[in-house]
Specification:
With 168 residues, the chain is of the alpha+beta class. It has 2 domains: 81 residues, no CATH class; 52 residues, DNA Binding (I), subunit A (Orthogonal Bundle). It is 23% helix and 25% strand. It is built from 5 helices and 6 strands. The site of zinc ion has 8 residues, from β6 and α3. InterPro entries: HNH, HNH_nuc, NA-targeting_endonuclease. GO terms for molecular function: endonuclease activity; nucleic acid binding; zinc ion binding. It comes from Myxacorys almedinensis A. This is HNH endonuclease.
């Protein structure tokens, strides 16, 4: 039945939950419905896609795990050397591992197979292959998750709540 975007009382995205949990929050009066997709759970109760909490919740920063999937998402599935977008993407260590480069958000980027092979065990400078953008740690885990869902095209109703992060 799909996922539901939970907004804080301030209308900022807070998390993503199952429709069942969202319905419980609505029934308990802890949240209000903001968007629905026109489907009904039962008569008079549309299936929510976006809800908003009635009370503001403070959220601590949550670490985003350094995974292949997350690095590809940060780099928008684009080779950071030649802008190639496609299926056969790899991860490249900016400073090669053989030369002390670490596994980190700052040292790992998405690269196509061609660029990865071409660069080999050189730095971008040595290989004369400048990076399109300086790799950095994603700011907010929530925006990260939410944009992933919106980009997948599953939850278009969420789009207007995450504008600003999609263009970056
Ligand atoms: Zn490339």
């Amino acid at each position: 039945m799909g996922k539901v975007l939970v907004l804080n009382a301030s209308f900022e995205p807070l998390n993503i939950t199952s429709w069942r949990r969202a319905v419980v929050l609505l029934i308990k009066g802890k949240a209000e419905q903001v968007e629905h997709n026109g489907k009904y759970i039962y008569s008079g109760f549309p299936l929510p896609t976006v809800i908003r909490l009635r009370h503001y919740v403070r959220v601590p920063y949550k670490e985003i795990s350094l995974t292949r999937k997350n690095i590809l998402h940060r780099d928008q599935q684009t080779c950071q050397y030649c802008s190639y977008r496609g299926e056969d993407l790899t991860l490249d260590h900016v400073i090669p591992r053989s030369r002390g480069g670490e596994d980190s958000w700052e040292n790992m980027v998405t690269a196509c197979v061609r660029c990865n092979v071409k660069k080999g065990s050189r730095t971008p400078k040595e290989a004369n292959m400048p990076l399109l953008t300086t790799p950095h740690r994603p700011h907010s885990s929530l925006y990260f998750e939410v944009t992933k869902h919106v980009k997948n095209g599953v939850n278009q109703e969420w789009r207007k709540y995450v504008i600003g992060d999609l263009s970056s």
